[in-house]
Amino acid sequence: MKSSLPTIPDTCAIPGTPLSDARAGIDACVHCGFCLQACPTYLTLEDENDSPRGRIVLMRALVDGSLPVDDGDVRTHIDRCLGCRACETACPSGVPYGHLLEATRATLTRVKPNPPVARLILFAFARPALLRLVMLGGRIARATRMSRLLSRLPGRFGFAMAMLESTRSAVKRARYVPRSDAERGTATLLTGCVMEGLFAPTNRATERALSANGYAMTATAGQRCCGALHAHAGDDEGARQLARANIAAFERSRADYIVVNAAGCGAMMKEYGQLLAGDAAWHERAAKLASRVRDVSELLAEAGPRPGGALPVKVTYDAPCHLLHAQRLATPPLRVLAAVPGLELVPLDGSEHCCGSAGIYNLIEPDVSDRVLAPKLANIAATRAPMVATGNPGCLMQIGAGLHRAGMTCRAVHPVDLLDASYAAQAAAERGS
Ligand code: SF4
Ligand code: SF4
Q1: CATH code assigned to 307-432
Q2: Residue spans per domain, the chain
Q3: I need a surface site. Which of 8, 219, 250, 310 has the fewest CB within 10 A?
Q4: Is the CB of 31 under 6 A from ligand 2?
Q5: Tens digit of pLDDT for each residue in 88-103?
Q6: Separation of alpha carbons 324 and 305, rounded Å
């Protein structure tokens, strides 16, 4: 199929920018519109400018100079994109939309910086000591039930407190010592900023579940934020700096696999090669490191995973966009849940649609985020499941906060937490027999 629009002329209005370097991706779009019905912002806002096809037209206009890079409307429509990459899955022409979006944001933020709240968050995530302090404050607010109290406040602050409240563990944990006769190689965990800060029990559950399936776990010192928030917000240099630090740290670990239990972080690390494509000193190292990265569900699915003890619970599953669309992993998380005897998996309508979290999107584009979340909550309610499983901290907090604010008793939980609880139940049954 030929494009209905001409390709961008050789003359470029914004030479030397990330977007001008990505113009081949813009040319790949044939404007067929197959992506429209997959796009949550198009379905929500019903404006072609808030669709993938419309945004690509705007990108083209920036490159050919028919629109200036400081155009306020262009910025609005680009800012409203969730970066969920559902359009990539739907696109028959292989348009690298996620890459185009990051290149566009990197170009636009050079003209007009992100809002202060976004810059503050990116600043904190790039500084481990500051981030540890922020996470400690969050844990104190959670432990003292301050987050529960403040989650009743209206507006974004109340929603942020509900997000924090939703990180309270939804799974009862019994201790067990994971054992396995299998030898599947060594793995080291990207502990992650939010995962280690607010979901540390899930990180420990991840290590136990992998050990129970034959992976020898090792720790990696010196690891940092993966850089996904920075890349998605247009801070491409910030993302590259964090990627280089992680490459150096994980090279020292020498584990066969770098395992990630946060879908957004895993997608970012698998793309370190592209992120550092223009850096001769780091590109090869980045690509080599990326080839070792696995989502936790991938490694567990490769191992079976081995079934645990009975856990009679009804669960529905919501697919994180960066697992389904960016990493193209649809079945491994379902295999993790299928390894839990007694678990009844109830299908979720619209599981493939974004929940509206999208990194820090829910904090800087609250209205659209809420409107994208609403049908997700309605679909979860229709399943009548008391738990919704999803493998990404942003989704866990967005859906968890939405459920909490709606007064629903359903809890969001990581699939690995359920497998770990199943192994704990098995160990308890063996001790009792
Ligand atoms: S990334 Fe998601 S929100 Fe953005 S254009 Fe693609 S489908 Fe729409
Ligand atoms: S992004 Fe892909 S699916 Fe969407 S209009 Fe362009 S070619 Fe078609």
Answers
A1: 3.40.50
A2: 18-111, 307-432
A3: 219
A4: yes
A5: 999 999 999 999 999 9
A6: 20
